Amino acid sequence: MTSGGDAPGMNAAIRAVTRAAVGSGFRVLGFQRGYDGILEEQYQELDARSVSNIVQRGGTILKTARSSEFLRTRGLVKAAAVLNKTGVDALVVIGGDGTFRGAMDLAGFWKGRIIGVPGTIDNDLAGTDFTIGFDTAVNTAVEAIDKIRDTAAAHERFFLVEVMGRRCGQIALEVGIAGGAEEILIPENPEDIRRIARRLCAGRDGGKSSSIIVVAEGVKGGALEAARQLKRLTRNEYRVAILGYIQRGGNPTAADRCLATRLGVRAVEALLQGETGKMAGEVGGRGVLAPFHVAVKGKRQVDRLYPRLMKFLNL
Ligand code: F6P
After folding, report:
1. Ligand 1 closest atom vs CA 97
2. Best residue for ligand 1 mutational test, from 101, 132, 164 (most atoms within 8 Å of Cβ)
3. Pocket around ligand 1: residues whose beta carbon is below 6 Å from it?
4. Could you confirm whether 6 is annotated as catalytic?
5. β-strand partners of 295
6. Quick check: pTM over 0.90?
7. Checking CA distances to 86, which of 13, 40, 46, 141 falls within 20 to 30 Å?
8. What number does the ligand 1 atom closest to the CA of 217 have?
C-alpha cells in the first residue's frame, strides 16, 4: 500500500515490490487509499502484468490517503482483524513519517511482518540519504525557478519562492543551490531576517537588479511573512510564488525510478529474511534497514557544506 502524500516514484516502487514478491512466490494484494483501504477491505490482487506501464507515472495506482481512523486504537484493532481475515502475513508500506508511525502502531496489534519503503518528496527521514520523489520534486521546482528568473530579470524584481518539505529544508536547499538563489531560508538553520536584508541590500547596491530567495514552507510564516519583513527592511518590492502541489506530481526522474526499484526489491528481500519493523533505505550507496523509530526521528542536521557554499554563491 501507499500512504500519506503521493510522491513521484511510488508507482515504480509498487511495480518493484509486486514483481519481486511474485517472483519469490508470494501472492500480492494492493490495498487502496493507504490504511483506509485496509479498514474498508478495499484491495486488488496484483500480478506482474497489473504493474506494467507504471514505472514512468506519477501519483500512485493504489491511491493514497492520510487515515484519521487509523490513529485510534479501534482502527488499529479493526485493521489487524482485516489483515488476519484476508490472510495477509506481510505488509509493505510505501510512504513517509506518518506512514511509518502508523506501521509502528499497527505492530502493537498485529503479528505480521511490516517493511517500509521511503516514499515522500520531503527527504525528511533518517536512515536513508534520499527518499523516493525528492529528486523529481527538486527538479520540478528548479524548472519553475528558471522560469521565474526570466521574469525577475526582465522586471528587475525580487522574488520569494516557497517550496514544500513540511518541517524540513532539504528541498529548499537543493532547489536554492541548483536554481542559483541568492538566499535560502530553512527551518533547521533560522537566520536573523535583518542579516538577510542587509545582504540583499548589499547585492542591490553592488548592481544586482533581481534576486531569488527560496523559502522552505517550514520556516515560520513562510514566504509571505518573509516578504512582508524584507519589504519593510529593504524598501524593495517582493513578489511571492508558492509552488505547492506541482512538486508532488509529474513523471519521476530516472534517479527516482531507479531508487524506487532498488528499495522495492530490497523491501521484499528483507521480508524473506524475516525482518520486520524496518524501512529499506540507502546510505552512502549501500542498502540498509533502519528501524521505523529511527527513520521517523528525521534528518536533524543540514549538511554543513550548504551554508559554506552560500557564503560564496550569493556574492
Ligand atoms: O509530505 C509531503 C507534503 O507535500 C509536504 O511537503 C507538505 O507539507 C504536505 O505534504 C502537504 O500535505 P497535504 O497533501 O495533506 O496538503
Report:
1. 1
2. 164
3. 5, 96, 120-122, 164-166, 217, 248
4. no
5. none
6. yes
7. 13
8. 8
d(CA 281, CA 283): 7
Letter string b/e over residues 84-108, b meaning 16 or more CB atoms within 10 A of that residue's CB: eeeebebbbbbbbbbbbbbbbbbbe
Nearest CA residue ID for atom 14, ligand 1: 5
Per annotation, catalytic residue among 6, 36, 105, 122 = 122
Tens digits of pLDDT across the chain (315 residues): 999 999 999 999 999 999 999 999 999 999 999 999 999 999 999 999 999 999 999 999 999 999 999 989 999 999 999 999 999 999 999 999 999 999 999 999 999 999 999 999 999 999 999 999 999 999 999 999 999 999 999 999 999 999 999 999 999 999 999 999 999 999 999 999 999 999 999 999 999 999 999 999 999 999 999 999 999 999 999 999 999 999 999 999 999 999 999 999 999 999 999 999 999 999 999 999 999 999 999 987 787 788 788 888 877
Q: Kindly report the protein residue whose alpha carbon is nearest to atom 2 of ligand 1.
A: 5
What domains lie within the chain, and their CATH numbers?
10-133+252-297 (3.40.50.450), 136-248 (3.40.50.460)
Q: What's the gap in Å between 170 CA and the centre of ligand 1?
A: 14
What's the rounded Cα separation, in Å, for the pair 159 and 112?
51
Tell which atom from ligand 1 comes closest to the C-alpha of 4. Answer: 1
**Residue 162 grid cell:** 516557497
